[in-house]
From TrEMBL, chain A:
Biological processes, Gene Ontology terms: quaternary ammonium group transport
Gene Ontology molecular function: ATP binding; ATP hydrolysis activity
Name of the molecule in the record: ABC transporter ATP-binding protein
Lineage of producing organism: Bacteria, Pseudomonadati, Pseudomonadota, Alphaproteobacteria, Hyphomicrobiales
Domain named ABC transporter: residues: 4-237
Function: Involved in beta-(1-->2)glucan export. Transmembrane domains (TMD) form a pore in the inner membrane and the ATP-binding domain (NBD) is responsible for energy generation.
Family matches, as InterPro entries: AAA+_ATPase (IPR003593), ABC_transporter-like_ATP-bd (IPR003439), ABC_transporter-like_CS (IPR017871), ABC_transporter_ATP-bind (IPR050166), P-loop_NTPase (IPR027417)
Recorded family membership: Belongs to the ABC transporter superfamily.
Species this protein is from: Tardiphaga robiniae
Pfam family, one: ABC_tran
Record key words, sorted: ATP-binding, Nucleotide-binding, Transport
Automatic annotation (TrEMBL), chain B:
Family of this protein: Belongs to the binding-protein-dependent transport system permease family.
GO biological process: transmembrane transport
GO cellular component: plasma membrane
Originating organism: Tardiphaga robiniae
Superkingdom, taxonomy of origin: Bacteria
Keywords: Cell membrane, Membrane, Transmembrane, Transmembrane helix, Transport
CDD domains: TM_PBP2 (cd06261)
Pfam families the UniProt entry points to: BPD_transp_1 (PF00528)
Keyword Aminoacyl-tRNA synthetase tagged: no
Designated name of the protein: ABC transporter permease
Annotated ranges, domain ABC transmembrane type-1: 71-256
Entry's transmembrane regions: 20-37, 75-97, 109-131, 137-156, 200-222, 234-253
Compartments where found: Cell membrane
Membrane topology according to the record: Multi-pass membrane protein
Length: 252, 268
């Protein structure tokens, strides 16, 4: 079953300084099955963040269609959970209140949404931090909260925009491993935007390579799960796939 | 050296236990110098009274009930004007801060009227409304309004775009985004605006009371000038300073500690 479907997606905007139309996304078509983990890579300026923002409904698209479970996307909505590079946690809410925010907007009573939030915090190993404020947490912990906050709202698609780009390298590897573990437990449908080729291959079932606003190629990743860096770093298939994707990105 | 350190440690511990000490101690040299100059005979006492004289006047005016009455009048005027100013200023600031169109239309007008200081309105207000509460309220509302509007606009614009987007993606309606994201995000700036606004409003009130008033601290000081009572003028000045300190330290600062500083939006 197709959860997300992009059909001839296009984005042009008028640049008032250049005085001309600029095309950020030329023509992108992509189908994502339910429970699939798709990484989108490409050099900067290839339009990957623009595509994510259009799927999320943050910016309008100028051509084609975006369908979520068959419904046309017209603006932001709770069927698409977003994890931001900037974390975007509400600083004035505790970790528990942040994770319970989605259910709160749906009118779920406090007891019930607190229970849901605690369950998801436990999933990310954050039970001890429930009553802290985001600024009291490390970057890695903040982004764990960001991920479970989106998951706790049960979205049809989880959109992740370079979510681990602003944490240190060791924390990033841990977060990547945790994300694959959570994905295996819950099987959410994920679109993961990144410029890090190894990250894209490590996480995904499928890697989509973008170039100049078009899909250049797609590569299936059949690496066994659970995926752990200690094993994969030496794995021949992982090395070959990473090299293959890297060459495409660099040539793009 | 050792004694100085011991003294310092005792002072730190005492101020930790009774914070009021930290407020009073810096004023000891001020009062001491004032006292020495007044008692030195450099100036006649009626022209330059000593702290004791002001204290005596404070006790006598409090005992007669004049000072409490005037203080109450001034505070009620400020509170009344400030409430209206806040009620107008915050919504206006949110509108201008979140709508590009409203910003374009209102901003030049806002800056124009901000430049016409509160007191500059008095001549025309006195003709329109006469010597009364309406004139005073107008001036205070006017004075309080601008700092609050400008800080609210700044506050709304300073909220990171991703926060509103995150809320929308979690199912928040525009009203909920305003309530759950925009307002708390703008709060530290709004409080700064409130602090400035109340400070300016307080000063404007004294000025207006001097010109318009029939009561209040400003009136008391101006009335004392007519009677040549330097003691009461100085008393009025001290009351103003003390009162503002109380408002700032006991009301505004605790709000700041509980909000922006706690959330890490402002560094303490």
């Amino acid at each position: 079953m197709k959860t997300l479907s992009l059909k001839n997606l296009r984005k042009t905007y008028f640049d008032p300084y250049a005085g001309s139309q600029v095309t950020a996304v030329h023509d992108v078509s992509l189908d994502v099955e339910q429970g699939e983990f798709v990484s989108v890579v490409g050099p900067s300026g290839c339009g990957k963040t623009t595509i994510l923002n259009m799927i999320a409904g943050f910016i309008p698209y100028t051509g084609g269609e975006i369908l979520i479970d068959g419904n046309l996307v017209k603006g932001p909505g709770p069927d698409r959970g977003v994890v931001f590079q900037s974390f975007a946690l509400f600083p004035w809410k505790t970790v528990l209140e942040n994770v319970g925010f989605g259910p709160k907007m749906r009118g779920v009573p406090k007891d019930e949404r607190d229970r849901t939030a605690r369950e998801y915090l436990a999933l990310a190993g954050l039970s001890h931090a429930a009553d802290r404020y985001p600024n009291e947490l490390s970057g890695g912990m903040q982004q764990r909260v960001g991920v479970v906050r989106a998951l706790a709202n049960n979205p049809a698609v989880l959109l992740m925009d370079e979510p681990f780009a602003s944490v240190d390298a060791q924390t990033r590897m841990t977060l990547q491993e945790e994300l694959t573990r959570i994905w295996q437990e819950r099987k959410p449908t994920v679109i993961f935007i990144t410029h890090d080729v190894a990250e894209a291959v490590f996480l995904a079932n499928r890697v989509v390579v973008l170039s100049k606003g078009r899909v250049l190629d797609q590569i299936k990743v059949d690496l066994p799960r659970p995926r752990v860096w200690d094993h994969l770093i030496e794995d021949e298939t992982f090395k070959r796939l990473s090299a293959q994707v890297l060459q495409m990105v660099r040539a793009a | 050296m050792n004694i100085a350190l011991k003294f310092w440690s005792g002072y730190v511990r005492a101020t930790h236990r009774w914070p009021i000490i930290a407020t009073i101690v810096p004023f000891i040299p001020v009062v001491a110098i004032w006292s020495i100059v007044a008692n030195s005979g450099m100036f006649p006492r009626a022209f330059f009274p000593a702290p004791v004289d002001v204290m005596r006047s404070f006790i006598s005016l409090t005992y007669k009930g004049i000072l409490p009455d005037y203080l109450q009048d001034s505070l009620i005027r400020l509170l009344f004007g400030a409430t209206i100013g806040v009620a107008l200023g915050i919504p206006l600031g949110i509108l201008i801060g979140s709508s590009r169109l409203a910003h374009r239309i209102c901003w030049p007008v806002l800056l124009f009227f901000q430049a016409i200081g509160d007191i500059a309105w008095l001549p025309i207000l006195l003709i329109w409304f006469g010597f009364g509460l309406t004139t005073m309220t107008f001036v205070i509302v006017y004075t309080v309004l601008f700092p609050i509007v400008l800080s609210t606009v700044l506050g709304v614009q300073s909220v990171h775009r991703d926060l509103a987007r995150a809320a929308q993606s979690l199912g928040a309606s525009p009203i909920r985004v305003l309530w759950e994201v925009t307002l708390p995000g703008a709060l530290p700036n709004i409080i700064t605006g409130l602090r400035n606004g109340l400070g300016y409003g307080w000063r404007a009130l004294i000025a207006v009371e001097i010109i318009v008033g029939t009561s209040g601290i400003g009136f008391m000081m101006f009335d004392a000038r007519r009677a040549g009572s330097t003691v009461e003028i100085l008393l009025g000045m001290i009351v103003l300073g003390t009162l503002w300190y109380i408002v700032d330290a006991w009301i505004l600062a605790p709000i700041e500690r509980a909000t922006g500083q706690r959330w890490g939006l402002v560094t303490s």
